[in-house]
């Protein structure tokens, strides 16, 4: 039987008025929650972006029960779609395209979302965004030397980052030194224009330049046969359909606030909108950025904490802009007219691309550190006005933050085996990891990476099935 205080507690639970504190065991007890707020699943997926949505659907299709904990109000992550009321068109200002490979095709076909050719525009202009003048960076054959180098260390992006031990010092050189050592000056600008924003290119460790611009995943000379990029009429559609299919198992506006983990099972307390829920599962598939701010509520042990504490991150912001005065169908690449190799220095608007509406463009802005929305808006507006020859008054229709974006560690951490240690966490204490920290080569590559994790997750679930009644309040009554 139970005493008066437990009775009061259970009554509170039944009426749904529960306030569990972080350190009390009661927050992991189903009796502290209304029955509807306790979810028992084979796998909990953290993050409903590219890799998390793919993983949740792959596991569901393999017969496993899943729930997804997503911080934002919708699935899709780095996908941003603007609904243009006047035309009914979906205008993309986040993720633009996918590889037309068999894994990606199967995923989109499952949701009956057809591919269309990527809207790449008519031509590209390379201009200094601060002065509105054409710049012609040198380009030459040394890109082949670079391609060879990347093929030696990163031939299979979808298998993740696996480095020789000891880690070759070439990979830990600041890229400015690598360029000189291997005389690839005439490839520097092209490499910059392929990489997304992260640290300033010449300051980056060569490893991160390999991850950002490699022959296996970018259309550069000396690279793998290029699988044409495709888009959809609405890049949010596949994620919206997955969210609808998961129904109540798609927890939106939700974040983990406390955890109890072992190899056999995981309990997560999730703040979901205004309510708290208890999620009990065999395993977790984690797909959100691997930074301590996200992971410190996951009951980390010292081994995990020591790995995650090394990670820092860079920033990426996107906007959709109309009344630009830019040339219809053109894309614009930034190039500084007065820097080494014409590589612009952050923070900067680095790329402006056309949408399906002539006057409307998306603009990408990168920074080494988080930057205020007002500063980003002002810089993009100014750059576009300059590129229009001071003729336009650009209006920003939509803004999105993709920060944290790149997840990076120092040369010392890499030398000390950071990537081996991160890879070795797969399955440790009930957690598997996917997403940008493990494979930076885009959505299609991440679907593939995530698919490779599924057998291991299946095995762990089969070995540690959560009892069907794990979510029942077993006190009294
Ligand atoms: C602007 C932009 C454009 C890009 N364009 C392309 C492109 O055209 N093609 C391409 O292949 N790749 C593109 N990329 C690369 C992109 O990073 C990958 O394609 C892919 O979206 C990464 O998937 P992910 O699952 O790692 O991250 P995401 O898609 O961001 O998914 C992570 C999810 O986790 C959620 N989350 C974050 N923190 C938490 C938390 N604490 N708890 C719960 N949930 C959380 C996020 O809200 C998000 O939904 C682009 C990236 C950016 C930023
Ligand atoms: C639990 O801890 C997190 C961060 O560790 C904090 O943000 C949150 O407010 C705490 N919740 C409670 C109920 O104490
Ligand atoms: C694109 O798809 C999303 C998700 O399903 C939906 O909310 C949105 O209305 C769609 N936009 C257009 C223009 O069809
Ligand atoms: C994608 O690839 C398939 C198979 O090769 C092809 O049939 C299809 O036309 C391609 N789609 C686009 C939009 O390029
Ligand atoms: C690249 O590697 C190939 C074979 O691995 C070799 O034949 C070629 O000469 C190399 N090219 C450069 C520019 O290093
Ligand atoms: C998935 O990744 C592996 C490893 O890089 C690769 O061999 C395979 O071709 C990829 N599959 C697809 C469909 O791209
Ligand atoms: C850069 O542009 C400015 C302004 O047009 C010009 O004065 C300067 O000569 C240019 N510098 C180089 C290196 O081209
Ligand atoms: C868009 O621009 C192109 C190229 O200038 C032009 O041919 C086309 O008519 C324009 N479309 C609209 C709707 O204005
Ligand atoms: C646009 O204005 C800036 C000053 O705001 C000036 O430096 C630049 O020369 C002008 N460009 C044109 C094409 O008039
Ligand atoms: C948990 O699993 C890991 C392997 O992922 C293993 O090293 C460890 O010994 C296990 N711990 C327990 C308590 O079983």
Give the number of helices: 15
Judged by helices, strands and strand pairing, the structural class is alpha+beta
Using the 3D structure, state the CATH architecture of the largest domain. 3-Layer(bba) Sandwich
Unreliable spans: 1-21
Major sheet attributes = 7 strands, mixed
Number of domains: 3
Tell me the helix content. Answer: 25-40%
What is bound: which ligands? Answer: flavin-adenine dinucleotide, 2-acetamido-2-deoxy-beta-D-glucopyranose
Number of strands: 21
CATH class of the largest domain: Alpha Beta
Mean pLDDT metric = 94
Our measurement of the CA-to-CA distance between the termini, rounded to an integer number of angstroms, reads 9 Å
Strand proportion, as a percent range, falls in 15-25%
CATH superfamily of the largest domain: FAD/NAD(P)-binding domain
Give the C-alpha Rg: 24 Å
**What is the approximate shape?**
globular
CATH third-level topology of the largest domain: FAD/NAD(P)-binding domain
Pfam families: NAD_binding_8 (PF13450)
Organism: Recurvomyces mirabilis
Protein name: FAD dependent oxidoreductase
Signal peptide: 1-20
């Amino acid at each position: 039987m139970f005493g008066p205080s437990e009775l009061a507690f259970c009554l509170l639970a039944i009426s749904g008025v529960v306030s569990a504190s972080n350190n009390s065991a009661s927050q992991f007890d189903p009796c502290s929650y209304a029955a509807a707020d306790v979810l028992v699943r084979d796998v909990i997926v953290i993050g409903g972006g590219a890799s998390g949505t793919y993983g949740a659907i792959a596991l569901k299709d393999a017969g496993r029960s899943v729930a997804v904990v997503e911080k934002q109000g919708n699935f899709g992550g780095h996908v941003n779609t603007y609904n243009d009321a006047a035309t009914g068109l979906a205008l993309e200002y986040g993720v633009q395209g996918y590889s037309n490979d068999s894994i990606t095709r199967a995923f989109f076909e499952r949701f009956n979302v057809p591919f269309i050719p990527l809207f790449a525009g008519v031509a590209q202009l390379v201009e200094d965004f601060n002065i509105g003048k054409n710049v012609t960076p040198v380009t030459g054959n040394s890109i082949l030397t670079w391609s060879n180098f990347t093929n030696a260390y990163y031939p299979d992006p979808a298998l993740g980052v696996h480095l020789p031990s000891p880690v070759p010092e070439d990979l830990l050189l600041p890229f400015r030194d690598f360029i000189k050592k291997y005389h690839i000056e005439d490839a520097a600008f092209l490499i910059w224009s392929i990489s997304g924003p992260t640290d300033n290119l010449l300051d980056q460790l060569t490893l991160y330049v390999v991850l950002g611009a490699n022959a296996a995943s970018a259309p550069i000379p000396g690279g793998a046969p290029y699988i044409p990029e495709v888009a959809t009429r609405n890049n949010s559609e596949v994620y919206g359909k997955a969210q609808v299919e998961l129904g109540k198992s798609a927890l939106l506006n939700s974040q983990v606030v406390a955890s109890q983990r072992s190899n056999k099972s995981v309990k997560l307390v999730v703040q979901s909108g205004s309510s708290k829920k208890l999620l009990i599962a065999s395993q977790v598939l984690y797909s959100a950025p691997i930074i301590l701010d996200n992971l410190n509520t996951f009951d980390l042990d010292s081994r995990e904490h020591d790995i995650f504490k090394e990670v820092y991150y860079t920033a990426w912001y996107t906007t959709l802009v109309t009344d630009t005065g830019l040339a219809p169908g053109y894309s614009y690449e930034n190039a500084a007219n007065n820097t080494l190799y014409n590589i612009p220095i952050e923070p900067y608007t680095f790329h402006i691309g056309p949408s399906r509406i002539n006057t409307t463009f998306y603009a990408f802005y990168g920074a080494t550190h988080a930057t205020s929305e007002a500063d980003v808006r002002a810089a993009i507006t100014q750059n576009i006005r300059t590129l229009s020859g001071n003729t336009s008054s650009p209006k920003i229709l939509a803004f999105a933050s993709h920060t944290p974006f790149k997840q990076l560690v120092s040369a010392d951490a890499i030398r000390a085996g950071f990537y081996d240690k991160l890879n070795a966490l797969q399955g440790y204490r009930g957690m598997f990891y996917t997403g940008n920290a493990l494979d930076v080569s885009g959505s299609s590559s991440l679907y593939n990476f995530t698919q490779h994790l599924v057998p291991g997750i299946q095995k762990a679930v089969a070995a540690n099935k959560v009892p069907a009644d794990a979510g029942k309040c077993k006190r009294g009554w």
